[in-house]
Amino acid sequence: MALLLGMQICYTKYCCFLCEWNNRDKKNYYVNKLWPKRTSLTPGEKNVVNLSFVLQEKIYLPPLHIKLRIMNNFVKGMDKIDRGVEYVRNKFPNVSDSKIKEGIFVGPQVRELMQDKPFDEGLNETERNAWLSFKSICRDFLGNHKAANYQDVVQDLLSSYKAMGCNMSLKIDFLESHLDFSQKISAKSLKNTVKDFTKILCLWKSGTKASGSRVFWQTIAGH
Fold this sequence. Notes:
The chain is mostly helical. The protein folds into 3 domains: 1-59, no CATH class; 63-182, no CATH class; 188-220, no CATH class.
């Protein structure tokens, strides 16, 4: 996403393309929800390094991408000497300690853990509340079904993550400050996006490399 929008990648101060959220202002994590809106993406200003390949309204947030990131925040916020982390190590013995420490999991692993009742029971109360909130948002907002009370579901996740001391991430910022934008998620649009991406990628591999990377990304974006 940062690449498409011409923004600096990795850990940057202003990583949101919708507002000037300062992700290094930890004292305001889960407190300040209203940040100044970005009026433009100008190279050289607030972690923008290149001209954008796409318009902001063409950006979609895949549910799985959000789910994996907030899972990452949860695991990194767990008590490392408590039973929960040890249970995860034993459940996924082929996953390295460094990946577990950083909360790096794939979709099937997350789904497997969500169905594991002993894992729920091994968490302390604060972690269990956050974990149940995570499962709720996966079911009632990031899945195929969007509950009527999805705003309450999202707020419950934010409150429980704050109580657990989880770091903010760009995906949590979207849920907290740009929930309307997050609602752009739809199975149909994502299906078409993946289909178009696969089609263009095949064309690019078969002979369009000469057009250059900028043309390639602009084509994907529908320019």
